[in-house]
UniProtKB/TrEMBL annotation:
Pfam families: PIG-L. This is PIG-L family deacetylase. It comes from the Bacteria. InterPro entries: GlcNAc_PI_deacetylase-related, LmbE-like_dom_sf. GO terms for molecular function: hydrolase activity, acting on carbon-nitrogen (but not peptide) bonds, in linear amides. It comes from Salinicola corii.
Length: 417
């Protein structure tokens, strides 16, 4: 069921809408399309525009909007205890709407374990799905493709002045983030045998997977994979080829036999390593013995956009206008995974344990970030901005069948020649 209708204006301001009978007693979400009047908008004392949605004074959620984008979407979570025909109210502060909000109702897809997350780098699984993978820890596995060792300069080391050369600093960062691959999931109850590192060179995923250009890891594969409890194929080679990565993924997929796989969303996430991870999964699945029932797509980066506002509100729903391209048509179904207050705090702990997210900003850097973001955080103000965008009361995914995922990627490859 994916019903659509428009909210009705209410005297005195705001809008109202009712929960359809078909959604009563079901977990899911309502996608609310908003069209804003943004001409002449200026940042005022009240800060970013806010939309509030709720049932009376209960279950009210506030959503921060982007001030300069006219077409936006928000995703309001629905719980099974909301009675049919319950009236919801929507109000907006700091902006004006150009028309009535449009509603799309989405039941939560049924998902089963075992679960497997493919992460391009350490911290990608936690940013996108730290709450979900904690809730599913009993049957969760994580495969990380790269250590994320790339270091732009020796001035960007985690410990200032520790290494004098870029080569030494890069290897040190690789060691640090390799530790993250196995240590952080322990906080969620995942034992080390369910965390695996492949060892793809950081920043080289797309030429390796898409273009088939062999890459030489800065860290020998045997050393990068030293903490793995699973022996992956081709661990003693010096030059990594596409088939070496696909063979490792097929081994993990056929061994775990996940019913649900989580991977980066190639329609929204423009990061080259993230797109390569998604493509590698499709290529591996096209020749694997096992095919998952469902694929959950997540994005940690967006094109010309950044999730607005502070932490602890519901997850941002990216507008369709920022999609990179269409691979899957209408197949993906949006889904929210709820995180209660304690789970949100636990997710913050997962992020803080990740070396790349834990450096602290000084007062000047924090002021600059606040001006750019349009708000002053009351939580983790000195930490990476991902603490604001990732620590939310819901996690947002798009779900499609394993068949649709593979077919979409293969059609795209055929069309692009």
């Amino acid at each position: 069921m994916n019903g659509r209708n428009e909210a009705e204006p209410v005297a005195g301001g705001g809008y109202r809408f009712r929960l359809p009978d078909a959604m009563a007693g079901m977990a899911g979400m309502v996608e609310i399309e908003l069209t804003l009047k943004i001409e002449g908008w200026r940042m005022g004392r009240r800060g970013l525009p806010i939309v509030t949605v709720g049932r009376g004074d209960r279950e009210r959620e506030s959503f921060t909007l982007e001030p300069t984008r006219d077409s936006q979407r928000i995703a309001y979570p629905l719980t099974p205890d909301i009675p049919a025909e319950s009236e919801m109210r929507l109000g907006i502060d700091g902006a004006r709407l150009a028309g009535a909000p449009r509603l799309h109702w989405h039941p939560r897809p049924r998902l089963n374990g075992p679960f497997l997350i493919l992460a391009p780098h350490p911290d990608d699984a936690e940013l996108a799905a730290g709450g979900f993978y904690t809730d599913q820890a009993e049957t969760m596995h994580i495969v990380t493709l790269s250590c994320g060792e790339k270091l732009k300069s020796v001035d960007r080391q985690y410990l200032d002045g520790l290494d004098r050369t870029l080569e030494d600093g890069t290897r040190r960062k690789a060691e640090w983030r390799r530790w993250n691959v196995y240590a952080t999931p322990l906080l969620a109850g995942l034992p080390p045998e369910r965390s695996t590192l492949v060892g793809v060179p950081d920043g080289q995923g797309w030429p390796l997977i898409h273009d088939g250009i062999p890459q030489t890891p800065i860290w020998p594969l045997r050393e990068a994979r030293a903490f793995n409890r699973v022996e992956l194929p081709f661990s003693d080679i010096d030059v990594l080829e596409r088939e070496h990565v696909l063979a490792a993924l097929r081994q993990m997929i056929d061994g775990i036999r996940p019913d649900t796989i989580l991977v980066t969303d190639p329609e929204f996430d423009p990061h080259a390593d993230h797109r390569a991870t998604s493509l590698a999964l499709a290529m591996a699945l096209s020749k694997s013995a096992h095919r998952p029932t469902s694929v959950m797509l997540y994005a940690n980066h967006y094109r010309r956009a950044y999730p607005p506002g502070p932490a602890f509100q519901p997850a941002w729903m990216p507008p369709s206008s920022i999609a990179i391209e269409s691979l899957f048509g209408d197949a993906p179904v949006p889904m929210l995974w709820p995180l209660d207050t304690e789970r949100q705090k636990h997710k913050a702990l997962l992020l803080d344990s990740m070396s790349d997210l834990s450096p602290r900003a000084n007062r000047r850097q924090r002021r600059r970030r606040a001006r750019r973001a349009g708000f002053v955080p009351t939580f983790a103000a000195d930490r990476d901005p991902y603490f604001q965008t990732a620590v939310r009361s819901t996690e947002y995914f798009r779900v499609l069948s394993g068949e649709a995922f593979v077919d979409g990627w293969l059609r795209h490859l055929d069309a692009s020649g």
